[in-house]
Write a structure and sequence with these properties.
544 residues, mainly beta, 35-stranded mixed sheet
Length: 544
């Protein structure tokens, strides 16, 4: 034990993310905690945290054992250490004890509806090899068999700075395992998350480093950047790095137990397992200065960059990505106009994006990789290089016409299409007729729809689909299909200044390479077996 604490002491002193000075240790056993008992351990844990805070800082030690807890409040200059064998378990609320007092409407407060909460703190964190387990009660809202308010998250950390979260595991974290909102200078390292909804939510934050984390979330996004209006102001998410992480959509709970279950084929929205890295959907403040590198996606949706709430998305660099068994589009860039946030804002901006060294195997055949803006807001200045995408294939243009393979969840028939209080009454879902049978190239704009590749239905391209975009370059890109697919490989619509250098297309079917609709400026060069092309204008052209 002494040796272990000495190692932790050295770790804290070297971290630079925690408070200055020599840390003292506060063991919760000294504050009345009873291992494995029925008493709520949050009382002694909070007492130990308060004592450490009052003394100017320290480390609160939660030793091996199972500790049932209601709400825990983090404080400045205090680190919570979850030792090996520690299980911090969310307790079931009763009439006498619970997480938070319900409000007049019977609901828990928005901010502190969490197992662990902090607001306005600095130089603090949670570290250690222990487990946080919310599987009994942490839900998205109310538990169906619990008549009292329960938390919808494990962590809510609001407007705090200089934070460290390292090495612990989380099982079943509700709507969000870790919600950072308005935080600055945060390190997330070596986390192992196996949950039923969002994993890591980085919302309106800056200077955040996420590294060596593994996040399994079948029903929602694994690592997601947001810039919502939760703080009542427009604030970007900026200067973020995500490195060396693995994300997946295995059955909930089967990552931590090592079985990697594949029995559940759909998330609640009827698309396949989610478990991806995503920018958005909330994008009021936009995203700037983001790097994602060295990450692996498995049995999940692909990479998604979405700007639909009027923000500015720019200066994004994504590289060295491997994806396997991808159930929707492997790469999805979307600029729309859902319009959450302050009233009167126009569409946002999506520009200066660099995607490189990406390998994808087993991508969904229906949605290609869409880069799609809207008629009055175009995607601009995107560079794609050294990319290999292998799609499943096996479809034809008739599938893009009858739309029998489309997901109807995001249509008015599948879910209420009315906008929320900040959308001006605009529909937030695609209309029912958007996924009805149609001419293959009559693709709806879906400008106010919730951004998922499936809102457009089965696309007429199997490889790349670019619409309302300009100055998009593809260099050393190879796209191929496992099974013959008779749709065109690439469809460009309402596009300007599109360039391909070193393009390779592999498909056993005799299908066109390009279909162009209202294209101004296309250049294809350096592509094996393909003549160089320079097209100034094409209103309707097919290229074999």
């Amino acid at each position: 034990m002494k040796r272990f604490l000495c190692q932790v002491l050295g770790l804290l002193l070297c971290s630079g993310a925690l408070y200055a000075g020599t840390p003292a240790f506060y063991n919760i056993l000294d504050y009345g905690a009873l291992p494995g008992g029925c008493e709520a351990a949050n009382v002694p844990i909070n007492a130990a945290i308060a004592a450490a805070h009052a003394a100017g800082g320290g480390t609160v030690v939660v030793p091996a054992g199972q500790w049932h807890c209601f709400g825990i409040t983090l404080r400045s200059n205090v680190t919570l250490l979850l030792e090996s064998g520690c299980v911090l378990k969310a307790a079931r609320p009763t009439a006498e004890a619970g997480y938070v007092e319900p409000g007049p409407d019977g609901r828990y407060p928005r901010w502190n509806g969490s197992l662990i909460y902090a607001e306005g703190i600095h130089d603090a964190g949670v570290i250690g090899p222990g487990l946080i387990d919310g599987s009994d009660v942490v839900t998205r809202g109310f538990g169906s068999d619990i008549p009292y308010p329960v938390p919808s998250r494990i962590f809510t950390i609001r407007e705090s700075r200089n934070l460290l979260f390292r090495d612990f595991s989380v099982r079943m974290g509700g709507a969000r395992v870790l919600w950072l909102v308005g935080a600055d200078n945060v390190t997330l390292q070596g986390l192992r998350i196996d949950s039923n909804r969002d994993g890591i939510d980085i919302d309106c934050c800056r200077h955040v480093r996420v590294s060596d984390c593994t996040v399994n979330c079948l029903n929602d996004d694994a690592i997601v950047l947001k810039s919502s209006y939760s703080l009542g102001r427009v604030q970007a998410c900026e200067d973020i790095t995500i490195t060396g992480c693995q994300v997946s959509g295995f059955d909930p709970g089967t990552f931590l137990d090592g079985t990697y279950g594949r029995s559940i084929d759909e998330a609640p929205d009827l698309d396949g397992p989610t478990g991806r890295i995503k920018f958005g959907t909330e994008s009021v403040g936009g995203f700037r200065g983001i790097t994602v590198t060295g990450c692996v996606f498995e049995r999940s949706r692909g990479l998604a960059l979405e700007c639909v709430d009027g923000g500015i998305v720019e200066d994004i660099n994504i590289s060295n990505i491997v994806m396997r068994d991808i159930c929707t589009a492997p790469i999805f860039l979307r600029l729309g106009h859902r319009g959450r946030g302050p009233e009167g804002r126009g569409p946002g901006v999506l520009r200066r994006i660099k995607l490189s060294h990406i390998t994808v195997d087993g991508a969904d055949a229906r949605y290609a990789s869409p880069f799609v803006g809207i008629s009055d807001a175009w995607i601009e200045d995107v560079s794609v290089s050294d990319v290999l995408i292998r799609y499943r294939g096996g479809l034809s243009l008739s599938d893009a016409e009858d739309q029998q393979l489309s997901n109807s969840f995001f249509t008015a028939e599948g879910i209420n299409g009315q906008g929320g209080p900040n959308t001006g009454g605009l529909p937030t879902k695609a209309r029912a007729e958007d996924i009805a049978p149609r001419e293959a190239y009559a693709i709806p704009e879906c400008r106010t729809a919730y951004p998922e590749p499936s809102i457009f239905g089965v696309l007429p391209a199997w490889g790349l689909f670019v619409r309302y975009a300009r100055r998009i370059s593809f260099r050393d890109v190879r796209i191929e299909t496992e099974m013959p697919d008779t749709r065109p490989a690439i469809v460009l619509m309402n596009a300007e200044e599109i360039r391909f250098d070193g393009l390779s297309i592999s498909n056993a079917a005799a299908a066109p390479a390009f279909v162009l609709r209202d294209v101004r400026g296309l250049q294809v060069s350096g592509s094996p077996g393909r003549k160089e092309l320079r097209i100034k204008q094409a209103d309707n052209k097919t290229i074999q």
